[in-house]
Design a protein that fits this description.
six-stranded mixed β-sheet, globular, 21% strand, 407 residues, alpha/beta, 17 strands
Length: 407
């Protein structure tokens, strides 16, 4: 049995796991970024250190359990949040930074791009740094570069170019195309790990593999890759996603390509859902002067159903129910059969009480994978596919993704 080191860069923390070629997690670690005054301006500079700490944590865990360890690791696979932009100096514009700021006007050719408005904001607010940067990376690709020296941009599938950019789109917006690394596909072997500049306790020379944006690897890690499959990606923001064999259009439904050629993903988005719940936890800790982790706070909410936290959970579930109903209606109008269950990934998937509440409110069967951090399983799928162990992403997902029978 071989393992991969799978790494996903979140907004506030880095998650890493050793995942086997059977899709089993041998060890898991989560490292929060040590920010000063909550300033994320150079947060990308913290990613290497967080990975180093995660590797040491994983190493201790496998030593205790005698599991396959880092010496057996065949490759590193990196994914992360987006659309985040990072300069080669580590200056970072997170996907949710300046989210209430309207970007400067862009040419018509930028319409439909998720990244071009972020480029415009980055250049407007950090003009000198933007112009002086030799390279501008798309989020996790910055860490890939730090680990192996390769400059790439991970394009989930060729049809995604409109949601990203083309050379002409960059030129039209006044951005030097040479600043932006070329596209590669998920599973691409970017280069080989070098520990000389990183001081990370990993085997020298193992492949560093492109995962992708967290959204796409979550779809892969829940095997939401066949028409009619549903997935609720519940993190800082939240989205109900339906895999279809055709684009579905409606005012509040966003359709993007699937990572599987010929398929699409229709999504109802609810911005800041997890963030709103996090705010109620912070308010509770500020009011009581007591620190509590999310499990403790969720337990408190269920014991105190008049609390702001419980009200927020039920309110968000109600909005997600509305979104699910819209997706189901749109599917029915377009004769798209839908599965009778929906996968859930993200922090909510780790809490049984929250999941039961949500299932009751949605009146729809919810399922989770054996590893609720589906981004990491998605990374493993892409890693073993990239190494040639499987002929396709779908084949790898069918082997590595394991769904629990029930909540």
């Amino acid at each position: 049995m071989s393992v991969l080191l799978c790494v996903d860069i979140g907004t506030s923390s880095l998650k890493a796991a050793l995942v086997s070629d059977l899709g089993r997690v041998a060890a898991f670690s989560r490292i929060s970024f040590k920010l000063k005054n909550h300033d994320t301006t150079y947060i990308a500079r913290l990613w290497v250190q967080a990975l180093k700490e995660a590797v040491e944590d994983l190493k201790q865990q496998v030593c205790k359990t005698n599991s396959n360890g880092l010496s057996d690791c065949r490759a590193i696979v990196i994914s992360g949040n987006g659309p985040t932009l990072v300069t080669d100096d580590g200056l970072t514009l997170l996907w949710n930074a300046l989210e209430d700021t309207n970007p400067p006007q862009l040419p018509q050719s930028s319409q439909g791009s998720l990244f071009m408005p972020r480029f415009a904001l980055f250049r407007e607010h950090f003009n000198t740094e933007f112009n002086n940067a030799s390279t501008i990376f798309s989020g996790p690709e910055y860490l890939i570069w730090r680990l192996c020296g390769a400059k790439i941009t991970i394009l989930p599938e060729s049809r995604y170019s409109r949601a990203y950019w083309s050379e002409q789109v960059l030129v039209d917006a006044g951005i030097d195309p040479d600043k932006v690394p070329p596209f590669v596909g998920p599973g691409h072997i970017a280069g080989n790990f070098s520990c000389s500049d990183n001081d990370i306790n990993l085997p020298e020379g193992i492949p560093v593999i492109a995962g992708g944006p967290d959204f796409t690897v979550a779809m892969i890690g829940t095997n939401t890759l066949s028409p009619g499959k549903l997935c609720d990606c519940a993190g800082s923001s939240e989205g109900i996603n339906l895999c279809t064999d055709r684009p579905l259009t409606k005012n509040n439904i966003r359709t993007l390509p699937s990572v599987i050629p010929g398929l699409w993903n229709a999504a109802f988005m609810l911005s800041q859902s997890g963030k709103k719940f996090a705010h109620t936890r912070k308010a509770y800790m500020d009011q009581t002067g007591q620190e509590c982790d999310y499990k403790e706070y969720i337990d408190y909410c269920f014991e105190n159903k008049e609390s702001d936290g419980y009200k927020t959970m039920t309110e968000l579930a109600g909005k997600i129910k509305n979104g699910l109903n819209e997706i189901l209606l749109l599917a029915k109008e377009n004769n798209v059969p839908v599965y009778d269950y929906m996968m859930v990934t993200g922090g909510q998937a780790k809490n049984q009480k929250w999941m039961n509440l949500k299932q009751d409110i949605l009146e729809y069967k919810l399922c989770v994978t054996e590893s609720p951090d589906s981004e990491l399983i998605g990374d493993a799928v892409l890693g073993f596919y990239g190494l040639g162990d499987f002929d396709s992403i779908q084949q790898a997902a069918d082997k590595l993704v394991h769904i629990k029978d029930s909540l």
